[in-house]
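Technical annex, item 7. During the second reporting period the consortium partners agreed on a shared format for inverse folding records so that results from different sites could be compared directly. Each record opens with the tokenized structure and is followed by the designed sequence. A conforming record, contributed by the partner at site C, is shown below for reference.
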């Protein structure tokens, strides 16, 4: 979404994420592709995403789908606020990503995470009954 709606490089966000473990030296410019930086960003992003979804799943475990989806949206918004405000004390380069694109992607993350968890939970319950 960054290049399409924000006019930036698609390699800027992965560099920002990779800088969490690799340091500021990988930050743009240049916002070009680098396999090592990209893989580092994927690893960090996947680990954080899994941890966040496990927390969301724990929160919404006994909830119905509607309530869980609403909670997923709220969770995504809270995740955005925490990641792009207090955490910028430690990782100040994330302040430049405070925009509607990042808010939107975090809302979608929470919504899809809740929907997926509740769908899998429902499927597991149906399998137990049969």
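Designed sequence (site C submission):
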């Amino acid at each position: 979404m960054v290049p399409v709606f924000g006019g930036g490089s698609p390699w800027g966000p992965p560099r920002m994420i990779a800088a969490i473990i690799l340091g500021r030296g990988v930050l743009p410019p240049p916002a070009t592709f680098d396999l090592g930086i990209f893989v580092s960003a994927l690893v960090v992003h996947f680990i954080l995403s899994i941890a966040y979804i496990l927390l969301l799943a724990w929160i919404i475990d006994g909830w119905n789908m509607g309530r869980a989806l609403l909670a997923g949206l709220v969770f995504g918004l809270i995740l955005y606020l925490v990641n792009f405000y207090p955490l910028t004390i430690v990782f100040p380069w994330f302040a430049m990503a405070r925009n509607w694109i990042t808010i939107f992607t975090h809302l979608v993350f929470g919504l899809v995470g809740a929907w997926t968890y509740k769908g899998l939970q429902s499927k597991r319950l149906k399998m137990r009954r049969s």
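The mean pLDDT is 93. The chain is about 70% helix and 0% strand. All partners now use this format for quarterly exchanges.
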